């Protein structure tokens, strides 16, 4: 089942359990699997496809954002999330990041290997119900494209637009020539106006209301 030029990268905390997981994938798929610590971001030279498995038990939101940004720049990078709690968790991440596959905590090792193999072959790996949720998300987004956006000021629109592109508070402050304290104050007001509690929810709100579709939708709709 070996695919020349393909690398599988497991981004997780390196421990005996993750090593057992790596060994199992290698035995089942006959592919090379490399473990990377959560803070790392390294792509092997010469690979034509890099399946990056992000362990959400150990990888921070900031690190997922960095991998997301890399996947937009490097078409060899295919992102998937491991150890998701449930479909709601998967839907939140899929709406915010460029993920091609999702794996849940209660998935069997055999099912996980099947999903990884599908990613290697160029397919998406997610349930039909999850795809349906993404399509509904996209349709709602289209309906909202020209609606007023909750009374946000021009400056607040600028900030949430930058936030949805993955910018940190420091990045936003530098871009708009304001202090980080000012950015935090604006974000506090934005979160209240759009009724969200954290950055991922705000990013998803922006993508739904500011006409930026979730990454896998084009592929889903193409095959529909």
UniProtKB/TrEMBL annotation:
Pfam families reported in the protein's UniProt record: GerE
Any GO MF annotation of the entry: DNA binding
Top-level taxon of origin: Bacteria
Transport listed as a keyword: no
Secretion signal span: none
Gene3D superfamilies reported for this sequence: 3.40.50.2300, Winged helix-like DNA-binding domain superfamily/Winged helix DNA-binding domain
A single BP term in Gene Ontology: regulation of DNA-templated transcription
Key word Transcription present: yes
Keywords per UniProt: DNA-binding, Transcription, Transcription regulation
PROSITE patterns in the cross-refs: HTH_LUXR_1 (PS00622), HTH_LUXR_2 (PS50043)
Domain called HTH luxR-type: residue spans: 144-210
The name this protein goes by in its record: LuxR family transcriptional regulator, csgAB operon transcriptional regulatory protein
Lineage: Bacteria, Pseudomonadati, Pseudomonadota, Gammaproteobacteria, Oceanospirillales
């Amino acid at each position: 089942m070996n695919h020349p030029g393909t690398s599988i990268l497991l981004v997780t905390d390196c421990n005996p359990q993750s090593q057992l997981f790596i060994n199992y994938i290698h035995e089942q798929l006959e592919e090379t699997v490399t473990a990377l610590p959560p803070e790392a971001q390294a792509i092997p030279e010469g690979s034509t496809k890099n399946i990056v498995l992000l362990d959400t038990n150990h990888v921070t939101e900031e690190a997922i954002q960095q991998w997301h940004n890399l996947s937009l720049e490097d078409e060899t990078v295919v992102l998937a999330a491991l150890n998701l709690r449930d479909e709601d968790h998967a839907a939140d991440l899929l709406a915010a990041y460029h993920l091609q596959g999702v794996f849940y905590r209660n998935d069997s090792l055999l099912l996980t290997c099947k999903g990884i193999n599908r990613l290697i072959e160029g397919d998406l790996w997610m349930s039909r119900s999850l795809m349906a949720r993404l399509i509904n998300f996209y349709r709602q987004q289209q309906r909202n494209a020209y609606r007023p956006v909750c009374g946000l000021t021009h400056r607040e629109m600028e900030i949430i637009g930058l936030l949805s592109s993955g910018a940190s508070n420091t990045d936003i402050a530098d871009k708009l020539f304001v202090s980080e304290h000012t950015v935090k104050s604006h974000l506090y007001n934005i979160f209240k106006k759009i009724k969200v509690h954290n950055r991922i929810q705000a990013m998803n709100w922006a993508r739904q209301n500011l006409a930026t579709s979730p990454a896998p939708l084009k592929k889903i709709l193409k095959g529909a």
